Q: What sequence folds into this?
């Protein structure tokens, strides 16, 4: 007789493999450890192959057969999630509320335009909006506190999350015009910035713990949010990187100046829509993703931004004498 494992057995098997022990799996599944062990034993009996090596090891280790079965279990359970998600989207109508997490890397003009049209199109739908930086978007989607996220770097790969690139942004190193670095009339070196205070945002999500991005100075002031960082840089208390969308007007007015610092990585950052595989967006949330895609896919790239700033800094051409 051909083996016919149940979905529950596959879920238990996958949980043991991913958590690394029967006791951890029992906690994750809220079942007794004996039930977890019994389920795995039954699955192995049905398949007629051992899935875990138990002798001589403190923690169960996948056998070669177990490693092969693990990929099949992930695929089968993933297909089940897709089916459940499709049924949910067919069964449910317009959402009562949309919870969205938006990164500070998203241009504020685009965000305001999308939300303004959202209010006009879906007047009966409540909105729960969180705006933050770094890992906050991914953290809120993973925890279920946000149904969709619009954000930057994907800091954690997870099979339960669907990401789709919908645009781009970029960071630039800046300082106030009276800052010592802004007064150096040449490209800056690492030696120039090492002893200057660099303002750095701390990631409250914990997803980037132990990792710093473009932190070059020995002296660091850590702040909780990008808005505070922006204001402190404008006040001349330090230098740092800011999203182009936030400092665009400041560069135009001269309240901030771009620092010519090759050591600072200034590549474009992709912006993604993020959602859980098992929790597909309803009509209102789907419209919001499409609306952000329409606006962010046409944002100016880094070269165009620099060209605009360079043009603004050119001296005015004198009028020809009559």
A:
């Amino acid at each position: 007789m051909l083996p016919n494992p149940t979905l529950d057995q596959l879920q238990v098997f996958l949980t043991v493999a991913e958590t690394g022990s029967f006791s951890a799996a029992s906690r994750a599944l809220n079942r007794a450890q004996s039930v977890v062990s019994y389920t795995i034993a039954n699955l192995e009996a049905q398949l007629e192959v051992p899935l875990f090596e138990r002798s001589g090891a403190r923690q169960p280790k996948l056998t070669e057969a177990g490693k092969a079965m693990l990929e099949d279990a992930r695929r089968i359970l993933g297909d089940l999630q897709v089916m459940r998600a499709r049924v949910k989207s067919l069964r449910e109508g317009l959402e009562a509320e949309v919870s969205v997490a938006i990164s500070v890397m998203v241009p504020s003009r685009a965000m305001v335009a999308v939300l303004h049209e959202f209010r006009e199109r879906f007047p009966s739908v409540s909105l729960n909006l969180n705006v933050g930086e770094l890992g906050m978007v991914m953290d809120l989607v993973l925890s279920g506190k946000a149904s969709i996220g619009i954000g930057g770097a994907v800091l954690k790969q997870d099979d339960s999350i669907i990401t789709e690139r919908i645009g781009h942004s970029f960071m630039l190193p800046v300082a106030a015009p009276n800052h010592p670095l802004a007064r150096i009339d040449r490209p800056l070196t690492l030696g120039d910035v090492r002893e200057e205070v660099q303002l750095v945002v701390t990631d409250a999500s914990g997803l980037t713990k132990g990792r710093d991005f473009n932190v070059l100075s020995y002296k660091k002031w850590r702040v909780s949010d990008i808005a505070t960082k922006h204001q402190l840089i404008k006040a001349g208390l330090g230098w740092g990187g800011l999203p182009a969308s936030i400092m665009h007007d400041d560069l135009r007015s001269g309240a901030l100046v771009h620092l010519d610092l090759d050591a600072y990585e200034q590549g474009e950052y992709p912006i993604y829509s993020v959602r859980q595989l098992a929790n597909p967006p309803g009509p209102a949330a789907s419209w919001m993703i499409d609306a952000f895609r329409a606006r962010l896919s046409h944002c100016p790239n880094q070269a165009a931004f620099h060209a605009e700033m360079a043009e603004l800094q050119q001296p005015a051409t004198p009028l020809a004498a009559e």
